[in-house]
């Protein structure tokens, strides 16, 4: 809980937004894959572990991208701030 208080709000909000977007993208991809592609393909795995792994990895990747994006926006704001 104390860790989130030390993060600047710009970085925190961009990380949350990018994480949610990545989660929704990966979840929709997995659902489309299981519902539309798997019934017509005989090589589809019956184990949901690869789909869960894709969801986790894509969400973690978007979290990393969101954190970097928030940090860049914060640094650009501090660089071009006019007082």
Describe the fold and architecture.
By secondary structure, the protein is an all-alpha fold. Helix content is 80%, strand content 0%. It has three helices and no strands. It is elongated and about 65 Å long.
Sequence-ordered SSE layout with sheet pairings:
Elements: H1 2-6, H2 9-37, H3 49-80
Helix pairs in contact: 2-3
Structural features:
single chain; 83 residues; mainly alpha
Question: What composes the largest sheet?
Answer: none
- Return the string of H and E elements: HHH
Helix content range: over 70%
For the CA atoms, what is the radius of gyration?
18 Å
How much of the sequence is in beta strands? under 5%
Extract low-pLDDT stretches: none
Average pLDDT confidence is: 83
Task: Classify the secondary structure makeup into a structural class.
Answer: mainly alpha
* Structure summary, number of beta strands: 0
Distance between the termini: 33 Å
The number of helical runs is 3
Write a concise synopsis of the structure shown:
This protein is an all-alpha fold. It is 80% helix and 0% strand.
């Amino acid at each position: 809980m104390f860790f989130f208080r030390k993060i600047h709000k710009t970085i925190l909000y961009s990380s949350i937004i990018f994480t949610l977007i990545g989660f929704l993208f990966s979840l929709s991809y997995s659902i489309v894959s299981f519902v539309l592609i798997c019934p017509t393909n005989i090589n589809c795995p019956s184990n949901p572990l690869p789909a869960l792994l894709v969801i986790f990895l894509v969400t973690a990747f978007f979290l990393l991208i969101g954190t970097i994006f928030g940090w860049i926006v914060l640094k650009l704001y501090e660089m071009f701030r006019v007082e």
